[in-house]
Amino acid sequence: MTEYIIYETERLLLRPTSIGDAEFILELFNTPDWLKYIGNRNVLSVESAREYIKCKMLPQMEQLGFGNYTVIRKSDQVSMGICGLYDREGLEGLDIGFAFLPEYRGNGYAFESANKLKQVVFHDFGITEIVAITTKDNMASQKLLEKLGLTFTGTTKIPNDDEELLLYKICK
Q: Are the C-beta atoms of 168 and 130 separated by less than 8 Å?
């Protein structure tokens, strides 16, 4: 198995999501905000979470060298959320995304982790553009994307989804 880099910030570790994160992914994917803003991924058991990680998350990590990261608080080693860069069908450029369990929101963890990944891909991977999508009613996500330096550029739809999404972009 390939060894991937674990990124570090002052308070956080960003570790590539692995099969061992299945229970955490099951919990996160079934929070009300995940279901409302990101959508139902039909991850309804630990086994289906393992399959999701194996089939949806790990292949991009293996192909590109980056992808989905579990965000862990250094002080107590708690998994709080995920942050990643995704090669998403229907979007030009890499899509930066993040989601955290409700009890860990509002503490700057999403900004800290997403900003670290933004720096890494611009510096280490030679990526020159990052995009992001969010729903029109997800004001917290919009605010965070703008804080990260992304600019609203219009709307878009992704394949197999009728919802019009807001599109943001940043260039190196």
A: no
Q: What is the pTM of this model?
A: 0.95
pLDDT band at 2 (very low <50, low <70, confident <90, very high): low
- Please report the domains of the chain, with CATH numbers, ordered by start residue: 7-171 (3.40.630.30)
Q: Are strands 129-134 and 151-156 parallel, antiparallel or unpaired?
A: unpaired
SS3 (DSSP) at 108 = coil
Position 161 scores a pLDDT of 85
Structure letter (DSSP) for residue 54: I
Nearest to 127 by CA among 166, 156, 169: 169
d(CA 52, CA 46): 10
Name the phi and psi angles at 144, rounded to 5. Answer: -65, -40
Cα atoms in the 13 Å half-sphere on the side-chain side of 143: 7
Rounded distance between C-alpha atoms, residue 148 and residue 133, angstroms:
13
